[in-house]
Amino acid sequence: xxxxxxxxxxxxxxxxxxxxxxxxxxxxxxxxxxxxxxxxxxxxxxxxxxxxxxxxxxxxxxxxxxxxxxxxxxxxxxxxxxxxxxxxxxxxxxxxxxxxxxxxxxxxxxxxxxxxxxxxxxxxxxxxxxxxxxxxxxxxxxxxxxxxxxxxxxxxxxxxxxxxxxxxxxxxxxxxxxxxxxxxxxxxxxxxxxxxxxxxxxxx
Length: 204
Hints:
Elements: E1 11-16, E2 22-27, E3 36-39, H1 49-56, E4 60-66, E5 69-74, H2 80-94, H3 127-141, H4 143-148, E6 151-159, E7 162-169, H5 180-193, E8 198-201
Parallel strand pairs: 7-8
Antiparallel strand pairs: 1-2, 2-5, 3-4, 4-5, 6-7
Helix pairs in contact: 1-2
């Protein structure tokens, strides 16, 4: 059996996030091979005992795996403190290393497209090329901050000067994601790329 799958995880810390109903569990080791993975129901991982067990608690909206942390978003409930502690116990008892397909495409070890950003004629690139530039820019400017708050962002596509994204983890149900965070992402992209780019959130 793969030794990575036999890892015993410990919760080093449980952090509040800007989303009052989402908690970030920081672990003692990496939990996923690469990228991220988001689960919205136990049907997303019928063979994963940990995922099924957490959703079985009830009032669980989303489970997000990334790097060395797990973020769990809950539906509003009076039993939130009990659920937060129960998830921590389940992590240490049932969590296994996720070696399946991640939400994000694994990035190859190659020079970043941003190294030549100043020389790029961004307005004349194709939409897929523009999307690749923006995705790389989000890696440098936005994703680290979102990860600190237990969340992430996936680029779906870019067309007609509009970027469609999907939030992950704590960001998915955070009230500020559709307002302040969205405007901040737009401002970052416009500042770097000198284009009037719109950002929209895709429905789940």
